[in-house]
Write a structure and sequence with these properties.
21% strand; 6 helices; alpha+beta; 4-stranded antiparallel beta sheet
Length: 279
């Protein structure tokens, strides 16, 4: 599943290129998770003002209204400029095309868990339902140590699962949660409120640094992720624990272990990340 770094890499790979473009046509393929919310042809003539991100949603600001794009479990966007080789006609797994004066933006989503939704603005009821519950943005100034401490102190949920929930801080998905907990030497099953002040600060800093590195490396490509310019990510080459079950820990040499938490795979080092009630 594309996580925050992959979505941010995707945004950066086409945001500047599509900004200022006029929409010439729009087309839908098979139904996605939620309906678009208006007829595709109603988008024609509007201008793309810019592309933002909130959590794992891309927000495409238009001269009238807003498109919310979510990549779901396996989705990816491609953007080709008018002076580049065309993508060709939409294939079986291509479910949204936005043809603009600057080029074509296409959503490819084999599993169709993604979505493209039109709303009049961020105050719309559907937009608020999708965005209002999201936690702090880890790569922005809104992500504060005090806010992070307060969020953890209020929860008995195991720290790994709290990170995945996105209720305190968004974007720390399954790959990156395993990584930041290893960097912080915190056992994944530790209740969030039992993580002591020193470890909370270490975890806070690890979230910022690991996600920033993942964006720098173009995200993680485990199967088929690529940015809107077709480039694959390379963060997986930097992973210390994720996907390394049985391999030696890069810090102590003990074998990396795998356990299931809420039906998700968690990778950790039992020697470096000792289980404890309080840290």
């Amino acid at each position: 599943m594309p996580e925050l770094p992959e979505v941010e890499v995707t945004r950066r790979s086409f945001a500047d290129r599509i900004a200022g473009a006029r929409i010439d046509a729009a087309a839908l393929g098979k139904p996605l998770r939620w309906p678009l919310g208006l007829l595709p042809q109603a988008l024609v003539g509007r201008e793309v003002l810019g592309v933002r991100r909130r959590g794992k949603y891309l927000l495409v600001d238009l001269s009238e209204g807003l498109l919310l794009i979510h990549l779901g479990m396996s989705g990816s966007l491609r953007f080709v400029g008018v002076d580049e080789a065309p993508l060709g006609s939409a294939g079986t797994h291509d479910h949204f095309d936005l043809k603009t004066s600057h080029g074509l933006l296409r959503l490819h989503d084999p599993r169709r868990f993604g979505a493209v939704i039109y709303v009049p603005d961020e105050g719309d009821a559907l937009a608020r339902k999708l965005l209002d519950h999201l936690g702090m943005e880890p790569l922005s100034s809104s992500f504060t140590l005090d806010g992070f401490k307060a969020g953890l102190a209020a929860s008995r949920t195991p720290i790994k699962q709290l990170l995945l929930s996105g209720s305190v801080v968004v974007g720390v998905g399954n790959i990156y949660a395993s990584e930041v907990l290893f960097h912080s030497r915190i056992h994944p099953a530790t209740p969030a409120r039992d993580v002591g002040p020193r470890k909370v600060k270490t975890l806070y800093e690890a979230i910022r640094s690991v996600l920033a590195l993942a964006v720098e490396k173009g995200g993680t490509t485990l199967r088929d992720f690529s940015a809107a310019n077709g480039m694959e990510g390379h963060f997986q080459l930097q992973a210390k624990v994720y996907g390394r079950e049985g391999l030696p820990c890069t810090h102590c040499g003990a074998p990396i272990k795998l356990m299931k938490q809420g039906q998700r795979s968690t990778f950790y080092c039992a020697r470096c990340q000792k289980e404890a009630k309080a840290l």
